């Protein structure tokens, strides 16, 4: 019988163990900071009813959705009624609408799960990937002060990931819409189209955006010049951000509301303890999704702008309007962890991790297996991750296995050690060996492991 080739489908990230440990460490850092800011975990099913997931039909999203159908339903020719989630926002909307009367508002949730999109197969684009989201959902109203908490959480995450200097860039969709109104671009759909185009400024460049606005949108050259001058505003400090906002002059009620919100958010971001070097005003940030209404965010690595946004999000006024009559405004951010990890690895900003196994108990004499298991139990009870060699083999082979598996400490409990109440400890990293009293073993290993952890932290 011919063998089936072992292969992964395109658009997935499958890692070897040490890379997986590094990726899991990233998720753990993100999770720890989300929890530190008071967000509660939820999980939603990987499948949702298609009519819940696809509240709008015929759009780009529907063309990327994976539908789910059992073999029985396929045989009967039934139309799929389930689909894999393509983000975590729509499932959150359904979740809040369904459990509205059981939740405490403002509802603060974090969610770290895989999502699925039928992306065109290409390098660095994934069909299955982790998203890490936080959102605060209000009932009827939600203070703009929560908008300032998002950059504080973002700052904590990327500070602890230690991947280099970064800047959280902020804008306000009301400010942008009010500015466009002042230029005579008041129609809702036309306004959104212009918003989506200027959001591409950093990717496409000013000349390409100008050509689109003048050619496809038919805007006058003078109007386009004013738009481009507006969206190229950047700040270098909090005081400069306020000065840049002052320099915009007066505008419509929508414009003034957006400016007031942005001022308050910027001041509170500093009050949250975020250094001014890590956040800035950027009036080109619009975010392409139509449901954002106020504050919007994008985060970039200062020394690696080619990576693009590593975290984004914003304010929306009615999260679950398709599922409930209640008004549920909110604000949230999302980190595409799989793509971020891949980009960081490609840029050599993150490496592989060490093994999570810290010690290996070797087997010298098969008859002494209960003694080896007892030693391993003692170490595990003390919080030291320990593996036991379960089958007899040459000691050299066991050492070679430990080295290849990335296990630092190899423990030998032979006839002499058993008689003397000691354990021989071989440190493969330092390439040295010592005999340690059994009563001192846990303390000795802990000191070495803590020193190694401290060195990693300083690095």
Q: In a nutshell, what does this entry contain?
A:
It contains 18 helices and 16 strands. It has 459 residues and is α+β, with helices and mostly antiparallel strands.
Query: What is the radius of gyration computed over CA atoms, rounded to a whole number of angstroms?
Result: 28 Å
Count every beta strand, where a strand is a DSSP E run of 2 or more residues. 16
Q: How far is it from the N-terminal to the C-terminal residue, by CA?
A: 53 Å
Tell me the structural class: alpha+beta
**Given the structure, what is the number of helices?**
18
Topology:
Blueprint: H1 17-36, E1 40-41, E2 47-49, H2 50-53, H3 60-64, E3 67-68, H4 71-75, E4 82-84, H5 89-98, E5 107-116, E6 128-137, H6 145-161, E7 166-172, H7 173-182, H8 188-198, H9 201-204, H10 206-215, H11 221-231, H12 238-246, H13 253-271, E8 279-281, E9 292-301, E10 311-316, E11 330-336, H14 337-346, E12 359-361, H15 369-381, E13 386-388, H16 395-404, E14 409-412, H17 415-420, E15 422-427, E16 432-437, H18 441-458
Parallel strand pairs: 1-5, 7-8, 12-13, 12-14
Antiparallel strand pairs: 2-4, 3-4, 5-6, 6-11, 7-9, 9-10, 10-11, 14-15, 15-16
Helix pairs in contact: 1-6, 6-13, 7-13, 10-11, 12-13
